[in-house]
Amino acid sequence: MVKLTIDGVPITAPKGTLVIEAARQAGIMIPHFCYHPKLKWDANCRMCLVEIERVPKLQTSCSTPVAEGMVVRTATTAVTQAHKSVLEFILANHPLDCPVCDQGGRCDLQDFSHEYTPTTSRFIEVKRIFPKEYFSALIETQMNRCVQCLRCVRYCDEVMDVKALAPAGRGTMTEIKHFTHHELDCEFCGGCVQICPVGAITSRLSMYEYRPWMLKRADTICTYCGDGCQITIQTKENKLIEVNTAHGAGRNNGDLCARGFFGYHASTHPDRLQHPLVRRNGELVQATWEEALGFVAETCIRLKMEHGAEAFAGLIASRCTNEDLYVFQKFMRLAIGTNRIDSSARYGQINGVRALRRVQGTHRWAVTFEDIVAADALLLVGTNITETNPITGLKVKEAVKKRTATLLTVDALVPAVGTISNIANLAAHHFPVHPDRFGHVVLGLIKAVVEDGLVDQALAHRAPAYVQAIGDAVQALSWPALESATGTTSGALREAARIFARAARGVVLVGQGVLRSPGGYGLTTNLLDLLLLTGQHGRPGCGLAPLAEENNDQGAVEMGTVAEYLPGPCDLNDPTARERIAGLWKEELPKGPGRTLTETLEEARTGKVKAMFVVGENPVGSLPHAARAKDALAQLELLVCQELFLTETAALAHVVLPACSYAEKDGSFTNTEGLVQPVRRAIEPIGESRPDWEILSALSVLMGYPIEYGDAKEILKEIRSLIPGYGLLGAGPNPPRPDEAVVSRYLREGYAEDLANRYAATQPTEKRTGHFTLLVTQSLFHSGKFSTRSTGLLEIQNTGVLGLNPADAARLGVTDGDRVRVSNTLGELTAPIKLLERIPEGLAVFPEHFDEEARRLLGVSTDPQTRVPYCKSAQVVIEKL
Amino acid sequence: MPSYEPILTKNMLTPGYTGSLVDYERAGGYQALRKVLGKIAPDDVTAMVIKSGLRGRGGAGFPTGVKWGFLPKDYTGPRYLCCNADESEPGTFKDRQLIERDPHQMLEGMAITCYAIGAETAYIYIRGEFVLGAKILEKALAEARAAGYIGRNILGTGINIEMWLHRGAGAYICGEETALLESLEGKRGLPRVKPPFPATHGLYNKPTVVNNVETLANLPYIVNRGPEWFASIGSPPKSTGTRIFCVSGHVKRPGNYEVPMGITCRELIFEHAGGMRSDKPLKAIIPGGASAAFFTDQHLDVKLDFESVAQAGSMLGSGGVTIMEEGTSMVWAALRLMEFFYHESCGKCTPCREGTSWLVQTMRRIWTRRGRLEDLETLTDLCQNIAGRTVCAFGDAAIAPITSTLKHWRHEYEELIRTAEAAGSAELVMPATRH
What we know:
The complex is a heterodimer of chains A (881) and B (435). Chain A has five domains: 74 residues, Ubiquitin-like (UB roll) (Roll); 144 residues, Alpha-Beta Plaits (2-Layer Sandwich), CATH 3.30.70.20; 210 residues, Rossmann fold; 198 residues, Dimethylsulfoxide Reductase, domain 2; 110 residues, Barwin-like endoglucanases. In chain A, 32% of the residues lie in helices and 18% in strands. Chain A has 30 helices and 36 strands. In chain A, the strands form ten sheets. In chain A, strands 14-13-26-25-24-15-16 form a seven-stranded mixed β-sheet, with helices on both faces. In chain A, strands 29-33-30-32-31-36 form a six-stranded mixed beta barrel. A five-stranded mixed β-sheet of chain A has the order 2-1-5-3-4, with helices on both faces. In chain A, helix 7 packs across helix 25. The radius of gyration of chain A is 29 Å and the shape is globular. Chain B has 435 residues and is of the alpha/beta class. In chain B, the strands form three sheets. Chain B has a five-stranded mixed β-sheet with strand order 8-7-11-9-10, covered by helices on one side. A four-stranded parallel β-sheet of chain B has the order 3-2-1-4, with helices on both faces. In chain B, a hairpin with a 5-residue loop joins strand 7 and strand 8. The radius of gyration of chain B is 23 Å and the shape is globular. The C terminus of chain B is likely disordered.
């Protein structure tokens, strides 16, 4: 620690702290433009000059580290004169158009000018004027206001790794531009808008609509992925005006992605359901809440009398709040009396949770975002993290770019410079393999660990049989076979294994490419084996992190809205848990079995299930046609949907109940790292819509099993009494330690049951010539189908475009924008194409958000252990149209 | 006229000398390199240069050997030498001659430097406009490489020194050593905040020495004839050796003159450059390139060495000496230089970026008889607000023409303003700024 005084105040700060930061911590604000704690200092605005004793010239406090005994003065005549003069220079060419500037009212230049400068100027020359240029549909630039601090340029490079912006021109003619002549094409994270200290870069979504002091703020959590970013929704007269986030706020630390920053208009889309709808004479017609709920309650009671509670099933989206999820499963278990419950966590999240529970006895990560940043080696498997979990991706970027961690990546995409960042570009070792061969790379890494003596000695002592069994299993694999399957060399695999094993802190991130693909559960378990073998398991800061796709995937599992778990999550048949829950609920739990999504649909098809509650979930719109969800649901005698929009599934319903979006309700979400965070209402409910839990609660009363709560807080209180980890909201997560008893059991016997399967290097299916692998994946600019109602995001991407490698496209004789026919035995689609160098040859990538047609081509297979439906890829033929 | 023994210009002054490798070798070239490589310890070479008193010829005049000594001793990674051939200071044209007419002299100096500092790679950052110079250097590099003076295993000593030529793209600021490094790395050429200095964090963040062409060209002679000999030339102990002064302006024989440091302005102008071109008396001298403050006829007896010029309130700088005769408007002269600095300000620091634009506009207004008396106060104020508040020395350089002309010739400004007021033309509107 270093001792110094600033303005007479004695301060102690860690070595290396910059004077400006030390001052800030002591409550002394030194005015500045170009400095930002996220960025490497640049010292270009010269605003933060201070006097330092025994240094002749004024020094920029943003670039001067504290030194022992340093005496700093920030308010002397010389310093104030310097502040005045820098502001006078900046204002010389500034247009002073505050009355029409969106930044007016929260502008650093405005604030400092009021503090330091007179109201008149002695500048009588001609102001520099940049001709107005169109920048982008979402981002407006007004370069006359720019103070050339380059924060936007530096943010885009240092934090985002996108490098879309650059200063062009020289001297006073310097302006911020993007590199091309067409409009801006980048990640649209909005970071430049947020970090601009003046009004030079603003959002076009809310241009001229507000003054900052008119806005009502609500700090809540974004709903577009599992990262759980804190956002501040700003509203005016119940209208959504803008979303931003404060530096240092939330798990995102003030960073957002395009979905979070520009995607907020989905909640107030004109298509939102405003009233309950009831099917009369085959048509869905508007009804009152009393009519609709009365009809549902009546029909439920009748069907329960006729067919029993086991004829009911429920499905809920993990976009809902924990409170919704909790009340939903309680409603299904008590008011209806069935365990046939599942949620969209089934699509993949459950693979990660099941593997973690099996090997280490936790259902949450044993690491946090901070551990990712602090890791020395990071292994990313099957994740294009930029597009699926952008903010977790920023943690990886920070680890690599700022803390020089070594990054190892296994993914289908290849390193290439593009308009959006590509995590593979930062990798020390990237293993580009076909999506069905991620497992082969992991087996290769484990084989290298075993053969090169990298197995943790402590583990070898603790579990010799386990190490032996894994050793035998990987010895049985041949290097040539692994090399030919992965297209890499054993040398590269050995090198990567060595880096990972020798790292002081190793973290594995596993993404949708694994969790949602055949063999996902086994491969996730193998990655835990890799951590165990290399001694990277169980130590602080090390562990496996399966990435959640939906904002509350984790909460859905913990609330017990999946077939195999009660709230906790506890196993459905765990007698202790059943007793504890029954005691709290003062009601017996149903004894029937749980049923997963695909099983439920099958039972609906066969007529075993007669009635279904579907909350926010859209199986008809998400599963491929091959799953025949529509046929199954059409068989039902009662289908009740609680929805925001009339989705493909809701269109089949007998009753559609309008639900509130996240922007209209209170509650909590549990993010991918297992942190429970508060969701707060920003606007009044649209139309007559009501929060999901409230609808279910009202139904339960009508059905004679009242499950009543005053508000969401009361539900959370009950959740707290039942589920650990739901105490304090919002602070940093306190990750669980692996349960040593469970780890020991796994090492003793748990590993064995499926070892042969997991360690079999299945011969990858020979690729038929002329065939492509079609991958239906998440895009950076959308999330499910919800975001396709957001005007902002539609400006960036409004249609399904098939991504192809340029060499493949050349062979097909097509180029950007041409249409192609994609087909296989199941069906066909036509789509325009876009050439992307990050897509390897033989692969075609289509965004799942626009997959109405693409879903025809996909088949479905189900994981034998976790019953996860795998339906994200297909073999197809592509032809020029 | 006293005649002095030229050092750097000796070869090129020899009739028939082409600057080719053969000619250079015939004149004793590359003997110094043979003498040091593997025979004199690198640290001893540095010590020799320190002893010679050689100081940087690019403008700042920092002792060359001392600069080399700042490189970390225990660092095992790569180190670099950058030859600053981005000669862009208005009124300066010595490096260009050295490059075009005797390129091997500087290459030998670079090789010696690389050996002394332990660099295996050297870059020559040459001003983009020096097309001929770049061609000549490429040819010289090829010759030297073929002859084994650069490349791998030089002269069988096992020492590797590679040299590459990099052409700039037309920015004055890239002559500033850290901006040069940024530009060489492929980035926008903006100066870095110092410290850290290039000696520890230079090219690609590695220990780096940046030396001027003329500085490097001196090295073979220091090695060949000894530091004591070099230190005896000029005005020891602080300003040793010769200096090539680039004399331009209203003199009879403008051009490069290599003379020992410490001769007076009077001697340089009237004895070497042939005196004033017409018989008008001398009015002003810029002693060290556009960044140096103006001298008046009162300064004719100032000795041209680092200390004397600094003491008299200017700087020896790059050696560009510009002479102006009576009748030249000093307001116009300052405006002309301001136009240059305004055009070349890189725009990184607020005071320089905005200040040069403001200053140049006010100066134009005064020159076009639309000035006001209070403008002079504004000019003085703005200059004070730029001075010492920027990352690099550009800000300080940019104000020198205005501050020094205001100091010596304030009445010329006042006269223009009085004319303006008398004609009632204090109409302030200006045509849009030319950018």
